[in-house]
């Protein structure tokens, strides 16, 4: 290292020490305040609640300071005007002099933007951009780019390649994978920056091929939006939707490392409070449930529950100790149903109108019977003969000897009659969404009536036992059912807290049950196992529940509230959502402030999107904007060349993203005898783990082979994780392509690509996904010929 570089590094170390000194001071101050606040006693409910909120705020602050410990400051820009600005994960100021002097500028602040955008051709006032690389609190390297074209030693090669901070970028890209995604805040590229900082309003679609940083950009956009529109988004919350739990775990560290925690991360399957959708089902069944026609099917299923009797219904009631039978006529029931429907209220809310009408019809019957005037004919004759003054009006004659208060009494007692209520329950039952949907699946007759537009075999595929929990594709249907049944029912704080507790309980209970008898779904609340398991909650758990009671954030509130309107929704792998899932998400985002990232070439789900245009038109017409990401930071050029052949097969009009680097390592394929496949795979995994060192190896297999091949690899190689729920931190992970969506590994071994292609109508897209998961090496093992599109 030259003396100059050493001196420069020393100077940066001094500044870094100053920044960490500030961070430490702020953290200590917050810790001291937190201790004080926790010790303070509040006598009133309000004082206690204020103390709890303050504690939560301070705890959040401390968490943020901890989160930015690594890579606190990573950049510096020197302007042509002689100014210097340091860029980092948060903003820090020198307040001692009484002035607000910036020591470190948050990467999201407008003043940091030139750090990401400046090029030699368009330097944005920046003469030099410096990437400061650190390990812990120590400066390890500096990566300078001079952007002044007049300066002799301008780093032209770097800027002409269009990449900012190329050396730092390459170091990040080539680094071994850890099983957890890292943030890219130090090396965001210009086309990514434009997406991250795009306006909050409207729907933004980010289309990009594999490895172009869509997920990374989506997460950084969440952090940017929270920083820029904090007030609005902290009260309305930001929702990030990902394809599965494994993926959510994979990205879970990114926002905390950017000091943002108030975001709700979940799958579509998590979006119905009270339901944990973990049941599996065949892709073809999920596809049927994803069709838009299910809005009609559910409506008809509900109409079917609003029964119309064909015969009079006897209703036995108790009147002054005597049993009496009334008859409800089909016409009366029809009239009540029509009136209830005419209220245009959701089904459950309209029940009151239905009940009122039934009670009214029965009241009239009783009133007619007991109030019938035996002298009506004589009275009417008297009226007609001129003694009109003795009577109020003609209608009063003969109808009833009961007055209004008598009739009101009858009405009141009928409204409480168990038999009357039972008949109302039968004709117009109050339903939960779960009852409506499960009831539909459970009954071939109901399915036949509600879904004549499906084929007989499609209806048969939907049939299932109501016990055993819910699938992800059920959740949009439950949400749709809830709309029909309850509309927008606001939830109370108590419900939010209950829901959080329920989830905590469920997690605990599920854990306990898994230990007892393997993973059995607990969604059926009547399942006796559920009650048994919840009884296991111990004192420590109760203590924890007490603690969470104190502070409910908007994101937590939103998680428990089906009718919550999010401030912004970000959907990753958005191409996978079914039309019914889109309806659910759009209901959660009436402002249509959305960021949708995905790649229609990677669509694997049978009900997923083939075009953004068709998917979005029903919700935003053509008012959406498209941004494209074109550079692949993950997949080396050698591997991408193979994937490009498969992409051409899927859609010849699509072009693959440009890889930023070559590795010099060509992908390989080996055809083997079927009986030797398992042994050869185990050998290959051993070899690749040695190559990957402390990196990660992904073994991607056809869906039907994950159990046997996974077991074989796991028994031969310690620390192998298999299938859904696999811990990605493990050195070797065996997954299906669906499970590997959005993930990446240093080395990928792909098994039986032909079977993957033939395994689904979207098999070619699955193969494209599988081929683009590696950051360094790709090997293919096959017993049948390779699909023709795979050319090696
Ligand atoms: N500007 C960047 N600096 C450093 N690394 C980057 C940058 N952009 C993307 N990457 C890295 O490239 C890899 C791919 O990014 P990401 O997973 O976000 O891509 P993607 O478009 O979502 O991919 P896919 O659609 O294939 O799942 C990640 O390791 C990410 O950290």
From TrEMBL:
Keywords: ATP-binding, Helicase, Hydrolase, Nucleotide-binding. Transmembrane segments: none annotated. GO terms for cellular component: cytosol. Residues 187-636 form the UvrD-like helicase ATP-binding domain. One of its GO terms (biological process) is recombinational repair. InterPro entries: DNA_helicase_UvrD/REP (IPR000212), P-loop_NTPase (IPR027417), UvrD-like_ATP-bd (IPR014016), UvrD-like_helicase_C (IPR027785). The keyword Hydrolase applies. GO terms for molecular function: 3'-5' DNA helicase activity; ATP binding; DNA binding; hydrolase activity. Pfam families: UvrD_C_2 (PF13538). ATP binds at residues 208-215. This is DNA helicase. It comes from Virgisporangium aurantiacum.
């Amino acid at each position: 290292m030259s003396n100059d570089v050493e001196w420069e590094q020393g100077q940066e170390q001094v500044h870094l020490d100053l920044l960490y000194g500030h961070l430490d001071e702020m953290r200590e101050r917050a810790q001291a305040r937190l201790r004080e606040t926790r010790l303070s006693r509040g006598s009133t409910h309000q004082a206690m609640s204020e103390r709890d909120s303050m504690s939560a705020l301070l705890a959040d602050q401390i968490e943020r300071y901890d989160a930015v410990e690594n890579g606190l400051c990573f950049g510096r820009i020197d302007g042509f005007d002689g100014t210097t600005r340091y860029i980092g994960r948060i903003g820090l100021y020198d307040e001692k002099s009484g002035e607000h002097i910036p020591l470190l500028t948050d990467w999201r602040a407008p003043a940091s933007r030139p750090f990401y955008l400046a090029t030699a051709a368009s330097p944005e006032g920046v003469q030099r951009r410096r990437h400061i690389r650190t390990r812990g609190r120590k400066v390890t390297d500096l990566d300078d780019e001079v952007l002044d074209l007049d300066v002799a030693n301008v780093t032209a090669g770097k800027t002409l390649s269009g990449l900012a901070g190329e050396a730092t970028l390459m170091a990040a890209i080539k680094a071994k994978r850890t099983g957890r995604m890292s943030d890219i805040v130090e090396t965001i590229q210009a086309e990514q920056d434009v997406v991250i900082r795009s306006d909050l309003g409207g729907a933004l679609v980010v289309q990009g091929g594999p490895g172009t940083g869509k997920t990374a950009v989506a997460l950084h956009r969440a952090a940017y939006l929270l920083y820029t529109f904090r007030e609005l988004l902290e009260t309305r919350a930001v929702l990030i939707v990902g394809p599965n739990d494994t993926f959510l775990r994979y990205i879970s560290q990114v926002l905390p490392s950017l000091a943002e925690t108030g975001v709700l991360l979940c799958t579509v399957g998590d979006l119905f409070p009270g339901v944990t959708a973990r049941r599996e089902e065949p892709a073809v069944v999920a596809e049927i449930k994803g069709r838009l026609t299910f809005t009609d099917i559910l409506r008809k299923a509900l109409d079917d529950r609003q029964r119309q009797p064909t015969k009079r219904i006897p209703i036995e009631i108790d009147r002054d100790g005597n049993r009496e039978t009334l008859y409800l006529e089909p016409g009366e029931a029809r009239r009540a149903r029509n009136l209830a429907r005419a209220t245009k209220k959701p089904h459950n809310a309209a029940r009151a109108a239905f009940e009122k009408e039934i009670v009214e019809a029965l009241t009239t019957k009783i009133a007619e019977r007991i109030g019938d005037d035996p002298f009506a004919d004589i009275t009417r004759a008297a009226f007609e003969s001129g003694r009109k003054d003795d009577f109020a009006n003609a209608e009063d004659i003969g109808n009833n000897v009961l007055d209004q208060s008598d009739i009101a009494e009858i009405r009141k007692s009928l409204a409480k009659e168990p038999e009357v209520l039972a008949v109302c329950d039968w004709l117009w039952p109050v339903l939960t969404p779960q009852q409506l949907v499960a009831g539909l699946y459970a009954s071939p007759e109901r399915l036949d009536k509600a879904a004549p537009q499906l084929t007989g075999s499609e209806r048969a595929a939907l049939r299932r036992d109501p016990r055993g929990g819910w699938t992800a594709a059920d959740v949009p249907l439950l949400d749709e059912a809830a709309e029909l049944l309850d509309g927008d029912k606001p939830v109370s704080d108590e419900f939010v807290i209950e829901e959080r507790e329920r989830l905590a309980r469920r997690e605990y209970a599920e854990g306990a049950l898994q230990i007892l008898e393997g993973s059995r779904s607990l969604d059926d609340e009547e399942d006796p196992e559920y009650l048994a398991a919840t009884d296991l909650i111990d004192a420590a758990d109760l203590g924890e529940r007490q603690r969470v009671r104190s502070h409910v954030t908007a994101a937590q509130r939103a998680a428990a509230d089906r009718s919550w309107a999010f401030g912004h929704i970000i959907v990753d792998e958005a191409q996978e959502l079914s039309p019914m899932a889109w309806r659910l998400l759009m209901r959660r985002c009436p402002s249509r402030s959305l960021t949708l990232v995905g790649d229609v070439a990677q669509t694997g789900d049978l009900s997923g999107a083939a075009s953004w245009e068709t998917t979005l038109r029903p919700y935003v017409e053509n008012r959406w904007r498209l941004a494209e990401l074109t550079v692949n930071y993950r997949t080396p050029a050698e591997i991408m060349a193979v994937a490009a052949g498969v992409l051409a097969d899927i859609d010849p009009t699509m072009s693959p993203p440009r890889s930023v680097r070559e590795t010099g390592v060509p992908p390989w394929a080996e055809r083997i005898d079927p009986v030797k496949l398992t042994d050869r795979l185990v050998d290959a995994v051993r070899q690749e783990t040695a190559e990957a060192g402390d990196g990660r190896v992904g073994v991607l297999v056809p869906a039907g082979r994950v159990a046997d091949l996974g077991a074989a690899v796991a028994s031969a190689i310690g620390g192998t994780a298999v299938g859904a729920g696999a811990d990605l931190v493990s050195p070797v992970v065996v997954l299906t392509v669906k499970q590997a969506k959005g993930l990446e590994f240093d080395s990928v071994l792909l098994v039986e690509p032909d079977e993957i292609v033939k395994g689904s109508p979207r098999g070619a897209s699955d193969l494209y996904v599988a081929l683009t998961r590696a950051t360094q090496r790709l090997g293919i093992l096959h017993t049948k010929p390779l699909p023709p599109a795979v050319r090696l």
